[in-house]
Amino acid sequence: MHDRHASVRRVLIGVLIANVAVVSLKFTIGVGTGSLAVLGDGVHASVDALNNIIGLAVMRVAAVGPDADHPYGHGKFETLGALVIVGFLSVSCFELVTGAIRALLAGGRAISAPPLALAALGGTLIINVVVATYESARGHALRSEILLADAAHTRADVVITAAVLAGLVAAGAGYSIVDPLLAMGVAGFVLYIAWRIVRRSVPVLVDERALPAAQIRYAAEEVAGVQRAYSIKSRGSGLVRFAELTIAVDGQADVRTAHAIADEVEMRLTEALGLSEVVVHVEPL
Asked: Residues 6 or more apart from 203 whose CB is under 8 A from it?
């Protein structure tokens, strides 16, 4: 588990370096062109970098093992970190929408989009595609909520930057109203990404079942000596998943035999279903 948290931190550090480079480029292009959408994209990208810093801090807490106050460990702090990302996404959406409304009321704004600026913005798009692909792959491999949430945020950057590029081209052709309209569309897409993160994170925080009870029951009842498995509960957070169940055994079995059956059930569920901890209660039948 310690190796997993260290791997997540290494990914976040690499992504942070890439995001800092992207933020610098976008703000430079935004100021140079006067594009509201590019500046908004820069704000959004700066939130990415801040998310990485928060993620690194959260992972230090999540990596701490169980203690007296947290007997199941600190894994849910990683999921809480994913929700913090949602908060910053909401702030960036608000800034984009208010700025776009002001620009629309003013009838648009003049924007200069030289080829060098377009090429530089295209470069940030390529960086974001690489980062999102890599971070998503590592997030799935490590079952990391914080990496998957951040990868979703970076995918939003890809769509946003593509839209901003299109807006710069249109504005350069004289359609200045396109820039604030695209900024509002970008805000809507970011809100959609935020909703997807919430939908994935909340079940973990409210202890939604980790596995269907029928799947756990089937695996437990395959163990010799188990006549029935019932009162099955499970919950999970990333790689840390827990299950509790009661098994019925032959009422004539002695204590040693009953405990041996329970140990076998624990081993079977841990190995076959990837559960981190299994508590088995034994009842004679």
From this structure: none
pLDDT by 10-residue block (mean), the chain, 285 residues: 73 86 81 70 73 73 69 68 74 75 70 72 86 88 78 78 78 72 77 79 76 93 93 78 92 89 93 87 89
H-helix or E-strand containing 229? Answer: strand 228-237
Angle in degrees, CA 237, 241, 247, rounded to 5: 150
Cα–Cα nearest to 145, from 88, 202, 64: 202
Single pTM value for the model: 0.59
Instruction: Using DSSP, state whether 245 is helix, strand or coil.
Output: strand
Which 3 state secondary structure label does DSSP give 249?
A: strand
Name, in order, each residue with C-beta under 8 angstroms of 28's C-beta and a sequence gap of 6 or more: 120
d(CA 84, CA 274): 28
Please name the residue ranges forming H helices in 63-144: 76-105, 115-142
